[in-house]
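Sample pair:
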Amino acid sequence: MKSSLDQIKKKNQYLISVLSVLAVASMCLFVRNFIDYKFVGYLLMVVVTLLATFLDIYPVLLSALLSALILDFFFIEPYYTIHINSAEDSLLLILFFLIALINGVLSYKIRKAEKKLQIKEIRVNTMKLYNALLDSLSHELRTPISAIMGAIDTIQSKTVIISDENRQKLYSEIEKASLRLNHQVENLLNMSRLESGVIQPKMDWCDLKELIYNVLGHLKEDLQFHKIVVQANENLPLFKLDYGLTEQIIYNLIFNASQYTPKGAKIEIKVEYNPGVDFEYNPDKLMSCIITISDDGNGFPEEEIGKVFDKFYRLQNSKTGGTGLGLSIVKGFVEAQHGTITLENGEEGGSVFKIRFPALVMNIATISNE
């Protein structure tokens, strides 16, 4: 009897999802001329979150997408078209969809975790993890969103006269906050991929020097008060790695160093080629690619070094903010490519992250000569 009821619910979940969003949107449509579309967005976001408490993930994702389309089509001028005249309205719509999506996915994951965890001790530990995540999200997501909303409100204000210089500064703040928000969303999505086991590395030839400088370009704002040193041999070969995963690994490590070292600290990125042994005869010991990222900051407490790669773990005396996901994602992405990562404090202070990949190589110099 119970299973049949569950089956009926499963078949009707998409219908429930669509009807719930349409019902709230229809009520708001009657008073569209008297309320701001942002208020409608908040209501639809609440609907998505509530649906996530009892529906499967795909109906929840459908409700988030449908809410964004309805908000655009019926409540953002010009009406009855997906075209949006204002760049600020476009940005707000994208932010609404991202927040609704994150709320829905997190609510769904929390519900699924609570169903699986029956033992009291495990449940207590899980709640600690979620509390840490929600606490960090309240800062890491709300801060950039508040900065974006505040800047947009100032730009759109009809009572405040803004000079071109100040307007450009506000746009710059929006860009910085958007990049920070994107970084946190990427971490959440990456952790979800790791937990679901869907990561399948796509190995291809990578120029690690180019990859590193691309990452440094993305982090130029965060690194403007740091001294950056890149050490890589001119004849460094190409390595067969997953470009996207490797880029995220280096990004997270450098970003982490920029956030937890004082201004003026040196961050050094070193890439080495160590042929190791013959892959055909001893693949476990092949460590042809070694990436070292070190700094001369304060390093890590010795008693906590073994925990820094744990999910949601944050150092005892670290500054507020941060989700505790960055280093656990790094470890997951390294191991997905059959590599290893170690952390130790440098002899003269600071931290040293060392990554070793058993990667195939292609000698550029040989290709050029041919």
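Confidence is low (pLDDT under 50) at residues 1-8, 277-284.
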